[in-house]
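Reminder to self: tokens first, then the designed residues, so the page reads top to bottom the way the pipeline ran.
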């Protein structure tokens, strides 16, 4: 369970944010991956060398380094979200296409793409294969969202219909069903409004609203993927457009508060708790991260430009989980 959005300011800057909601234990950390860093594919063991440096939140387990989200030096940003019941890795292998492990795909994109046009071109020559990860012990069903400094946004899904890259004009993504379904489902909520009727007359009975906000009563309030998609889509398209970077940061966090899942509210069929591990916000122009975790509501910042990014090994900046202490 995760939600992601893009948001543009009046200054023309594009911002990207996601919640990481998960029912498995993870230990997310912040990494800086330098330009020209060489790594090996989990699918084929083929070596790759990154064209671009990037900063990312990820996790290294049993020698396997995977990334959840990130932004590179060109302002290309992406994230991976769960896609239960729809992701399909059992597709025929095409000889002239590169096999990319699902767990490697965020790394692959951040190291090679400077724009949405780059990823559209890149997808013509690859297919995605499932690799069991050490956290869930299975090939996790995944799909991806990507954006760049222009504000363009796409969703990447590999289903039984094959690998597809879909333009995302609303800049929102959640989990299952597929993106086309979510966009169609928005038509069920055309009656949602920021305003309300002052009164209505039913024969001789005059009805008036209790207070403000009656126009939003049709908004779904649960934490299913369709409900979170609708809620964030309405909020991000109807808030006041932020006029500055600081306003954009706060606007994004306010929107994501509407889909933040506290511990104990969502319990899986494995009797585990699915909750929001962290919320991360990225400025694609400055390549800055802003994030908060479940354990600490204080906003923390990390910047790509603060670290050496030309050659060498990955830089581990530390765990992002910094518990709040109260004296």
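Designed residues (327 positions):
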């Amino acid at each position: 369970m995760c939600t992601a959005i893009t948001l543009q300011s009046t200054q023309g800057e594009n911002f990207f944010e996601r919640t990481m909601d998960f029912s498995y234990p993870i230990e997310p950390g912040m990494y800086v991956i330098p330009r020209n860093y060489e790594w090996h594919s989990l699918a084929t063991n083929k070596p790759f060398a990154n064209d671009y440096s990037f900063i990312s939140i990820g996790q290294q387990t049993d020698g396997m380094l995977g990334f959840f989200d990130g932004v590179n030096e060109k302002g290309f940003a992406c994230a991976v979200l769960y896609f239960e019941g729809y992701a399909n890795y059992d597709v025929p292998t095409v000889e002239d296409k590169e096999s990319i492990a699902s767990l490697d795909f965020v790394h692959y994109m951040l190291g090679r793409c400077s724009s949405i046009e780059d990823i559209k071109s890149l997808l013509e020559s690859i297919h995605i294969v499932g690799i069991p990860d050490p956290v869930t012990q299975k090939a996790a069903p995944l799909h991806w969202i990507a954006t760049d400094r222009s504000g363009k946004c796409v969703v990447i899904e590999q289903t039984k219909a094959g690998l597809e890259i879909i333009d995302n004009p609303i800049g929102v993504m959640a989990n299952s069903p597929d993106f086309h379904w979510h966009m169609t489902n928005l038509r069920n909520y055309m009656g949602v409004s920021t305003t309300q009727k002052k009164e209505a007359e039913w024969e001789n009975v005059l009805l008036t609203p209790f207070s403000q906000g009656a126009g939003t009563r049709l908004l779904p309030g649960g934490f299913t993927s369709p409900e979170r998609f609708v809620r964030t889509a309405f909020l991000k398209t109807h808030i006041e457009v932020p006029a500055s970077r600081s306003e954009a940061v706060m606007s994004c966090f306010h929107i994501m508060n509407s889909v933040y899942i506290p511990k104990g509210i969502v319990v899986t069929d494995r009797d585990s708790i699915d909750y929001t591990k962290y919320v991360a916000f990225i400025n694609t122009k400055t390549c800055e991260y802003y994030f908060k975790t479940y354990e600490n509501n204080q906003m923390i910042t990390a910047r790509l430009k603060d670290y050496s990014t030309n050659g060498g090994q990955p830089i581990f900046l530390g765990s992002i989980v910094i518990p709040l202490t109260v004296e």
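The chain has a mean pLDDT of 92.
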